[in-house]
Write a structure and sequence with these properties.
By secondary structure, this protein is an alpha+beta fold. The longest helix has 10 residues. Strands 1-2-5-6 form a four-stranded antiparallel sheet, with helices on one face. The protein has a two-stranded antiparallel sheet with strand order 3-4. It has a single domain, classed as Alpha-Beta Plaits.
Length: about 90
Amino acid sequence: MDNQQPKDPQNPSGPVAVKQLKVKVDRDLCIGAATCVAIAPKTFVLDSEAKAIVLTTADEESPETIIESAKGCPVAAIIIEDEKGERIFPK
């Protein structure tokens, strides 16, 4: 993971604030397909357990890209909420 550091080392899979979004990866659902990494490589990387974690560089990614990466997850393991705590994806 060179300089790919988790945004929150205590909770590498979130929930973490990324711009106006709250991003969380459900580690129980995550199967390590890495679709999120392919779509949003500045936001996600797989850890040593092949589970997605949210990176410090996530703020460099557009909110639209982060939402698209969540939609690309085959098991809907990425939960996105807005700043009010309302779920954007999955609905």
